[in-house]
Write a structure and sequence with these properties.
The chain is α+β, with helices and mostly antiparallel strands and 552 residues long. The protein is built from 19 helices and 18 strands.
Length: 552
């Protein structure tokens, strides 16, 4: 939508200078806004006109042009977004072709029959004066709106108070969605019952195209919406902070029309709300900096840093003798994702997590890193891992699934430990769970407690020993596969998955039973181990797991 800072075609037609002029086509475009007036002496002027202009001309060129050329001019004018065209038809023509009139009606493009004796200057000057007066009045009204919004900010008011200011000026229902705080502010006036429900459904429908993912459309949108069988104009203004969308302001023309002034109000409000959000983000950044420094000291293996953190624990309302469990959310870095976008996602997820913690009545300490969120849950006697903590993690995964794509995040849950000094162990568990969850088939969320033998194998202190064990067991098999393009390692892995049942193994591999039997014999010969021997079988099964762990 072009900005409507001017007067409408209807306003122009009511002016004294237009008394003997007549609107002959495009009546539905009479609400088009005139922001400037221009004169056309040559059709090439269309290369230099702007949207919102009222073009004045004569039918001299129409006289020598055929109907198709005349229609082309009307199409081009409408395409350029001109407010309309005024033509001195007489004395050049008796009338405009009906085909041209029909086209203008179809395009809702106004054509004005100008009185032949009136000079163009007698139209341009009063119209320009009227536009100037309208714009001056508009600026005064907008200045008042800006003052009202700033008074809210300076008096310590909240964004919901700004919503009231927007509603009072638009005199139409207003709805503000803030992704940053996971908040919806409604100023719907007298709208109740079914209409209210349909309005909220229309609001929700705006986000359906994003399929629940975080959207970042920075463009203003204006559409005509069907609500209870009636059509209403809807304006949606994004709230942009650091080139990222942190919410939207919605308004529907259910009480009065929405025009240029209303658009300017939404723009002013959006900017003011963005400044308020930026202030809140800055405050959170400072708070998080202290929290992140505290957590780094707490997780440090340096004795002095840890003692320093334990001394400050009371500041963050953390008891030294409580039981704790660490939940780490790792956001996978995307090549297309810039730093500000990542910060926005973390800010929004923080708000979601805080809301979830309040809902479940859980006590937690949250600290962010560049691409991760660390949640330190405090466990009480009636809040064990298998109850509230499990519910929190399940709700957290559901929330992340709605906000992000599957490959954009991973959640690791450490084991519970007694005492704040032992929290680093739970953190290490959570990181190990994130790194190795795929080994047990977990894609997005992994409990370290459920990792089975991998809990032992993934310990850093065992790395060298695991390398040696791998080399002494199935490395020859891996090298054989590499040289011969065979699938002996895959066969061995699936052998254990099928519990040594060769018939099932053949079906899973889509190979003949004799081929499968031959492969098993080759595996035993190359490794020097007998799969019928329980010790050798155990060693080979562990070696397969070690191979996956070492990512060989």
């Amino acid at each position: 939508m072009r900005r409507q800072n001017g007067i409408t075609i209807d306003d122009v037609m009511r002016m004294e200078c237009m008394e003997k002029c007549k609107l002959i086509a495009g009546f539905k475009g009479s609400r088009n806004t005139v922001s400037r007036v221009n004169i056309m002496a040559d059709p090439d002027i269309l290369n230099w006109v702007d949207a919102g202009e009222l073009l004045l001309t004569t039918a001299y060129s129409f006289k020598k042009d055929d109907v198709e050329t005349q229609k082309k001019l009307i199409r081009e004018c409408a395409k350029k977004g001109l407010a309309g065209i005024g033509i001195k038809i007489y004395p050049y023509l008796e009338s405009i072709s009906q085909e041209v009139v029909d086209l203008a009606d179809f395009l809702n493009f106004p054509i004005i029959d100008l009185y032949y004796a009136i000079p163009f200057s007698d139209i341009m000057t009063p119209v320009f004066m009227e536009i100037f007066n309208k714009q001056a009045s508009l600026l005064q009204r907008l200045e008042k709106v800006h003052e009202q919004l700033m008074n809210v900010v300076l008096s310590g008011g909240k964004i919901k108070d700004m919503g009231k200011v927007i509603y009072e000026n638009l005199r139409n229902p207003v709805l503000i969605r803030l992704e940053f705080t996971n908040e919806i502010i409604m100023e719907l006036g007298d709208i109740e019952g079914e209409t209210r429900v349909f309005l909220l459904e229309n609001f929700s429908g705006f986000y359906e195209s994003s399929k629940g993912k975080i959207i970042n459309k920075r463009k203003f949108e204006e559409t005509v919406e069907n609500i209870q069988g009636k059509y209403f104009r809807r304006m949606v203004m994004p709230i942009v902070v650091k080139n990222n969308v942190y919410g939207h302001i919605f308004s529907w023309a259910m009480q009065t029309p929405l025009g240029g002034f209303d658009l300017s109000v939404l723009e002013t409000a959006s900017t003011t709300i963005a400044l308020e959000i930026l202030k809140q983000i800055s405050v959170r950044d400072v708070e998080n900096r202290y929290r992140a420094e505290f957590l780094e000291d707490l997780l440090s293996l340096d004795k002095n840093r840890k003692e320093k953190a334990l001394e400050r624990a009371e500041v963050f309302k953390l008891g030294l003798e409580e039981e704790y469990i660490m939940v780490v959310i790792q956001l996978e870095s995307q090549k297309t994702m810039v730093t500000d976008e990542m910060l926005k996602i973390i800010a929004i997820l923080n708000s979601d997590i805080e809301a979830l913690l309040n809902e479940l009545n859980l006590k937690a300490f949250i600290a962010n890193k560049t691409d991760s969120i660390n949640v330190l849950l405090t466990l009480s006697a009636d809040n064990r891992m298998q109850t509230s903590t499990k519910e929190f993690c399940e709700c957290l995964q559901k929330n992340l699934g709605q906000r992000l794509k599957e490959k954009q995040y991973k959640i690791g849950i450490g084991r519970p430990y007694h005492g704040l000094a032992e929290v680093y162990k739970s953190y290490i568990d959570a990181i190990k769970a994130i790194e190795n969850g795929g080994l047990i088939g977990e894609i997005n969320m992994t409990y370290f407690e459920k990792m089975g033998i991998y809990k032992i194998l993934c310990q850093d202190s065992l790395r060298e020993e695991l390398e040696r064990f791998y080399e002494a067991t199935i490395l020859p098999l891996v090298e054989y596969d590499r040289k011969r393009s065979a699938e002996l390692v895959k066969t061995l892995d699936m052998y254990f998955q099928s519990n040594g049942n060769l018939k099932k193994l053949s079906e899973d591999l889509f190979t003949h039973y004799n081929t499968t039997l031959y492969r098993i014999q080759r595996i035993q010969k190359i490794t020097g181990m007998n799969l019928e021997d329980h010790k050798d079988r155990l060693n080979l099964e562990i070696a397969i797991k070690i191979k996956k762990l070492l990512k060989k």
